[in-house]
Design brief:
Layout lengths: L2 H29 L2 H22 L2 H7 L5 H32 L4 H10 L1 H4 L1 H12 L3 H24 L5 H21 L13 H32 L2 H38 L4 H25 L1 H9 L10 H11 L5 H7 L3 H26 L2 H23 L7 H28 L6 H25 L8 H9 L9
Helix pairs in contact: 1-8, 1-11, 2-4, 2-5, 2-10, 2-11, 3-7, 4-5, 4-7, 4-10, 5-9, 7-9, 8-9, 10-11, 10-16, 11-12, 11-14, 11-15, 12-14, 12-18, 13-19, 14-17, 15-16, 16-17, 18-19
């Protein structure tokens, strides 16, 4: 499969799963209280740290290995299964202590349910990684969309029947069960894999470095939930999670689709001796052309989006959204940087970069929570880390992939011009619209503003001759627009 087709299917998957996740979030925000959602967010943060150990970089190893053998696959499954069983036991047994630490008895059952994922995920990891290595993104998209829909149905149904935070925990287990089953069925080779440890040295070398970096990264990413849950309580955790969740619609959800294609594509380019930086700059140029307008639009209409998506009980989250979106704008410049470094086999540089920037992130965010006891302070701390990460990470990249800064700068300037131009009319529109007090009103305001932004974006892409103008997908989009009929004279 070509990179363009892979990206098309990966993005299509993201659009569908984001739609499902949005629908789920909107329904759950009305069925559950902020405190109940905060309880699940804290349990997810706790599980997330152990989850990195379970992954152990096994999926990435299978994708980047130059000559993949059956012994590599069986060893990867053996490692994944052994780690999964061990982590399930540890998390399950320590759950009572964790619930006591947060002084919340309901956390115990939620952690116990979430721990079941460690027994399920080893059966997902191998099949999903092999599908990604073979760039079978069409099949993988179908698997993930069906799994997401399963989680949506299970989660909302249980929440409606009063299962509280456990409804989301059970939904995650159900989605992973479906992923593991369908991913195995989607493979061309459906042989049953027996666990083994023949290639343990290769996986231990790669996975050890990958896990060290990912553990620190995960801790720093979840530190706001863990620290705020203890310092400020569960409701602030839910508020900051909702605000960050709006930013994550692009930063996490859409970019995960892009990274799923970019990492194998960078690795393939490296194996074939092609210039990786050329593909990297082109990818960043395309990403920023979409990311920056998105973050700008969300910042302008933060209040309306929060009201429409989650309801008035989440209004406090709206003032945090622009700060997180500004952080996302900086992140868009480096989102594909570490996958590129790892794709050329420099897992050591990837590890060093993560071990440098992520502990600083944890210190700054926890410090802001302890000193200011303010959600705004935590959001600003989050932004600060993303700002200083950009120059540092490019310094790391230059050690293995030299950056053409002139070309990168010209491309980013073009994306900035497009972004600024397409946001002018939505901003003016926002200044003059009357205040809305209904879901229908918020919907029409966002729809009208979105149409203005899309029109301005399309015209700006053509006017400023942005590189994505020549992309096949953009040309198809242009052809879908109504044409002015020719007049005969």
């Amino acid at each position: 499969m070509s990179i363009r087709k892979g990206l098309f299917y990966s993005l299509s998957e993201s659009y569908f799963t984001i739609a499902i996740q949005l629908a789920s979030a909107m329904i759950l925000a009305r069925l559950l209280t902020p405190e109940e959602i905060g309880i699940y967010a804290v349990s997810l943060a706790i599980i997330g740290i152990a989850q990195v150990l379970r992954d152990f970089g096994i999926g990435s190893f299978l994708i980047q290995e130059r000559e993949l053998k059956d012994s590599h696959i069986s060893t990867a499954f053996g490692f994944s299964l052994a780690i999964g069983i061990s982590l399930f036991s540890v998390v399950y047994l320590t759950a009572p202590w964790l619930a006591a630490f947060y002084e919340e008895p309901r956390l115990l059952e939620t952690i116990h349910i979430s721990a079941i994922n460690f027994l399920v995920l080893p059966f997902c990891t191998i099949s999903v990684a092999l599908l990604r290595r073979n760039m079978a993104f069409k099949r993988l998209a179908a698997v993930n969309v069906i799994a997401a829909f399963t989680g949506f149905v299970v989660g909302t149904t249980l929440a409606y029947h009063g299962f509280g935070p456990n409804s989301m925990a059970v939904a995650a287990v159900a989605a992973n069960l479906v992923t593991g089953t369908l991913a195995w069925l989607a493979r061309q080779d459906r042989r049953l894999i027996l666990p083994g440890f023949v290639e343990w040295r290769a996986i231990l070398s790669f996975g050890g470095q990958s896990s060290a970096a990912n553990i620190v990264t995960t801790i720093s990413m979840d530190i706001n939930d863990l620290a705020l849950g203890k310092i400020l309580g569960f409701e602030p955790v839910a508020l900051i999670s909702r605000a960050q969740g709006v930013m994550n619609l692009f930063h996490r959800d859409l970019m995960s689709a892009v990274r799923n294609v970019a990492y194998p594509a960078f690795a393939k380019a490296h194996r074939d001796g092609e210039p990786v930086d050329e593909k990297y700059v082109a990818s960043v140029t395309s990403v920023t052309a979409f990311a920056w307008p998105f973050y700008g639009f969300v910042s302008i209409y933060a209040y309306e989006l929060i009201r429409l998506m989650f309801g008035p009980q989440w209004d406090e989250a709206a003032e945090l959204v622009p700060i997180f979106c500004l952080a996302g704008a900086f992140a868009a410049v480096v989102n594909l940087l570490l996958p590129a470094i790892m794709a050329v086999g420099r897992i050591d540089l990837f590890t060093k970069a993560e071990l440098t920037i992520q502990p600083l992130r944890a210190i700054v965010i926890v410090g802001a929570a302890l000193i200011f006891e303010s959600l705004i302070a935590c959001a600003i701390a989050f932004l600060f880390i993303f700002v200083i990460s950009v120059p540092y990470l490019y310094t790391v990249k230059d050690k293995c992939i030299k950056t053409d800064y002139r070309k990168l700068g010209d491309s980013l300037l073009s994306s900035f011009k497009v972004s600024a131009s397409c946001l002018v009319m939505p901003f003016v529109f926002h200044l003059y619209i009357p205040e809305q007090n209904s879901m229908l009103g918020y919907f029409f305001v966002l729809s009208g503003a979105g149409l203005l932004a899309l029109t301005g974006w399309t015209l700006a892409i053509v006017y400023f001759n942005h590189p994505i103008k020549d992309e096949e997908l953009f040309q198809r989009f242009i052809n879908l627009l109504p044409k002015k009929p020719k007049q005969d004279f």
